Amino acid sequence: MMVGLFADRTCSGCRHSSELRSRCESDYEMQRDQGFQLVYDAIDVVNRQLPESRRLAKSPDTVIVGPSGVLDSLGIVNFVVTLEERAGEVLNGRPVMLLDSAALAGEHPPLQTVATLARYLETFGR
Question: Are the C-beta atoms of 36 and 118 separated by less than 8 Å?
């Protein structure tokens, strides 16, 4: 049995969350709705650690990293680690690194907003 965020929602016969997967283990492609759900789940985890005034909204336009973002450096690290772990679970244990040099060097960094991050998560498994 999985421990953590998806512990009560796993499907029988595999480690995926039935809510987050549209196919079984043999298919590693992450769908867009899965990307959004993973980001929203990570927001839930991080928000539990934040005062109400600094909590992230679960909206595609919510800024994760940037001048109008509410997370400090420790909040960003907690968010990224949580999201990498959850995404790895959906991708059958494949490592997911959101802070690699290729992702950070682009014109539109994936951690900018919830929407950019969900789109970036789609690229894993292709």
Answer: yes
Distance, in Å, from the CA atom of 93 to the CA atom of 20, rounded to the nearest integer, reads 15
CATH code, 31-122: 1.10.1200
Please state the pTM of the whole predicted model.
0.71
Neighbours of 104 (CB within 10 A): 12
Spell out the residues 6+ positions from residue 92 whose beta carbon is closer than 8 angstroms to its own. 15, 16, 25, 28
Between residues 95 and 80, the one the model is more confident about? 80
Residues sharing a CB contact under 8 Å with residue 100, sequence separation 6 or more, in sequence order: none
pLDDT band at 57 (very low <50, low <70, confident <90, very high): very high
